[in-house]
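Sharing a chain and its predicted structure for anyone who wants a worked example. Both blocks are below, sequence first, tokens second.
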Amino acid sequence: MSVETQKETLGFQTEVKQLLHLMIHSLYSNKEIFLRELISNASDAVDKLRFEALAKPELLEGGTELKIRVSFDKDAKTVTLEDNGIGMSREDAITHLGTIAKSGTADFMKHLSGDQKKDSHLIGQFGVGFYSAFIVADKVDVYSRRAGSAASEGVHWSSRGEGDFEVATIDKAERGTRIVLHLKSGEDEFADGWRLRNIIKKYSDHIALPIELPKEVAAAEGEEQPAVEWETVNRASALWTRPRTEIKDEEYQEFYKHIAHDFENPLSWSHNKVEGKLEYSSLLYVPTRAPFDLYQREAPKGLKLYVQRVFVMDQAESFLPLYLRFIKGVVDSNDLSLNVSREILQKDPIIDSMKSALTKRVLDMLEKLAKNEPEQYKGFWKNFGQVMKEGPAEDFANKEKIAGLLRFASTHGDDGEQVVGLAEYLARAKEGQDKIYYLTGETYAQVKNSPHLEVFRKKGIEVLLLTDRIDEWLMSYLSDFDSKSFVDVARGDLDLGNLDSEEDKKAAEEVAKAKEGLVERLKAALGESVADVRVSHRLTDSPAILAIGEQDLGLQMRQILEASGQKVPDSKPIFEFNPTHPLIEKLDNEQSDERFRELAHILFDQAALAAGDSLKDPAAYVRRLNKLLVELSA
């Protein structure tokens, strides 16, 4: 190796130090994955060279046979991995190997618990494959040169995986990267051809370029050392181009880990080849766990795009809607141009057709999972449910299909788990029920105990309980499912339709007429606080509730808009009272107008609290309540 110049020692980013420590300790039980991760990175480097060489053929520098080589030295206790891909400049090495330039890194670090098993899952989701080298090596040397740069612009990066690393400029004749792992004491098993071959076959057989190992042959006459020949040990063909019947589940799983940089198996996958007007292959995966940056809408997402098996783009976002941003996979088109760009993808009508078909394929895959593996789907929903709830607003064409995949808590459960699907809800609906009833709120305890549910409990009607921040917004885009309309039980004048008997309706009309005087007194007492006052058909146990006007924003939406600094339109609730409740009967008999007004306001504030709202004037409520308590104790 040539003389090193411009040598300097730099410190690792704090997050890298933490990750190195966690990688070494959390993943030690599965040490052999280091080779899978390094081969995966090398494959990406070759893909990037292929793509850049489309516009700049000179980057290939005459070396068009792209490959990865893995070798070992038993005496020196080293494993070496070399690729002739895109390579790195000095700046690239410092940036890519010394820091983690990922949005959400700080959030990721907060999620680390110190529990090795849990943290290993998180590390896998974060995708920091290079650092896995330090699981088996106490020193790592990286020699690299970026394609297209001069031989004198090579870089040597070296570290013992502790606090710092060294970087120097070197001469390197060939483009690409060579990584030398100096194995720790006790890790000699990896300096062995048979062991390396098995690891490659196990984890990297799907890599679509040759992975070569040295094959020792007898020395020719007069030679001191035997000649070294290289042999390809993997299948070296693109997995998605092979017939599904020839591919084992283990191969699909390992390919997922390669493209997703995840350590866990996927939950499900779908492999499909389309021929006809459009020709493309797709291999789509549903991860088992949500990535740490799932809710950062600007985070990298999308499928790997190939055109005629040539890698073109990572994270091509145009093939799936945003609510399916957790889907990983590959799409390989025969119809797109090799010089396609993100801007072109956004305007190409071919992409619209592919996006529509791929979206339906993902939704079909999730339907199949929900039907055949309900327990696994329950896990999927816990991880990705809130993102799926973005779907009806974004994807009108598939609104009914998405709605069928949604899961909710309901009054038929007692633990708040979101496990009830709309089809299941309708299957056990009451005879004559032509509505899907729901109630939104901040917490499960609040909605479960809401007075709005009293009449539904009495009649045994199931109500969906929606407590995610996104739920009221979601329901503004869901008007019906399977021709049954949604009804917010806290909104408007509740009409149970066929679920109320003619006797019930007639009795309600008679009570409303009998209480017209009380309605007028309450309107006068509550004044500007309410939009209207009426006799309630919802209550059986509570004295009063506040209903929301048909066109008004619910409490959830108001709080979301206020938190984001947006102006919220003024609206007033409707005060409904239970005419048979003892407190209402006493109120009706109250002769003093002042005392009537005070008691009416206490009932109004209590109804607001029961709905999860905050009081406009808490001090006035406390004063009125204290006054009432003094009177009662006198």
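Comments welcome. The mean pLDDT is 86.
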